[in-house]
Design a protein that fits this description.
Layout: H1 8-21, E1 23-27, E2 33-37
Antiparallel strand pairs: 1-2
Length: about 45
């Protein structure tokens, strides 16, 4: 199991990246990557 620790600043940056692209990737110094993808959803306000 790989654990990647992120800071609050990392999470804020990730939120912006996810909002724009639907995904974010983190990489550690060893070259391991973790990708977080969230499906795009629409709300009544978007319609």
């Amino acid at each position: 199991m790989t654990i990647i620790v992120v800071t609050a600043d990392d999470l804020w940056a990730a939120a912006a990246e996810i909002e724009q692209h639907g995904r974010v990737e983190w990489a550690d110094q060893g070259g391991n990557t973790v990708r977080l993808e969230l499906p795009r959803t629409t709300t009544a306000a978007d319609s």
